[in-house]
Amino acid sequence: MRKWKHSVDLFELLRILLALVIAIGVSALLILITSETPLYSLSVFLFAPFEKLKYFSNVLEMMIPLTFTGLSLCIVYQSKNFSLIADGCFYMGAVVASFVAIKFVLPVGLHPFVAMVIAGIVGGIIGVLPGIIKIKWQANELVSSLMMNYIFYFLGLYIINYFLRDPQASVFASYKFNPTFALPRILEGTRLHVGFLIAMASVVLVYFYIYKTKWGYELRVVGDNLNFAKYSGINTAKVLIVSQFIAGTLAGVGGAIEMSGMYKRFIWDSPASYAWDGVIIALLTKNNPKYVPFAAFFLSYLRIGADLMSRRSDVDNQIIAIIQAVIILLIAAEHFLAKWRLKSENKTAKDKYITANLEG
């Protein structure tokens, strides 16, 4: 059994690594075809984030929201639900945190913590809505969550516009946050903040929740076989709601940390799009939280590299969209390397049969 599981894990790892290599290879080929300085553009894309501490810290900064939304989607997909309400949770978490940052006067350290708690609760409440609608009316959670994202986006804009907007600002922006709201920096001379450490701690907590607790076990059973979970006496509706609440809480906290660590006022005038990043991370990690930081680092590194390439060469940074599309296409394709998997499983079964006969 252990050998078979090892074979399956090896197969999934090979699929993911090969998908990443193919995606980067396709992008490299497009750069070589379209750029007037292809080798220079490609070298900037692949290696520039390591040139300076500032650039590398940018990679780690971008990892933070990706980690929170990746963890959120890992929990959602563990239950085999496909809600993308993480965008609404993240955006409203940022709005609520901005309200706390402007309206509350609290000591240093306590101020961002209170904002995270409130944003997390709001994100959790928003996160359960598609689950409740699915349980009560059998509505597809993907459709309802996508529709709700727009509802909460415009609700957030309304709150900022009518309660927090700075009339003196030349662009859409809130009043400045109180200085006590800012998270401390980890590295001097960079914007890397304590939110990175909170994100890494969240990875450990989510892994412990999913694989080391009774509630996580029930979540995985519900995701693997809903009917079996019902016949086993598991309250599947409760499991679904609790998991959606935790997932929404993570996204809401992520929005609060992004505001506290990276901004001095709220300036988002377009919808957040981190849920789709979370989908990619969940696919890359097979919903296992312990691999989320690596997937988040990979995406963040590519984006910073693409951004640096667009500044220094004639290649647009939207090439990252091609990489993401190829990754999703290959990992989601069940027949990708399916023959290799079948041969591997047959060999494992044959070895097991021979071993059993020899022992007998």
UniProtKB/TrEMBL annotation:
Family matches, as InterPro entries: ABC_transp_permease (IPR001851)
Keyword Cell membrane: yes
Superkingdom, natural source: Bacteria
Keyword annotations from UniProtKB, A to Z: Cell membrane, Membrane, Transmembrane, Transmembrane helix
Keyword presence, Mitochondrion: no
Membrane topology (UniProt): Multi-pass membrane protein
Signal sequence region: none
Subcellular location: Cell membrane
Residue ranges of the TM segments: 12-35, 55-77, 89-106, 112-133, 145-164, 192-210, 239-257, 319-337
Protein name (database record): ABC transporter permease
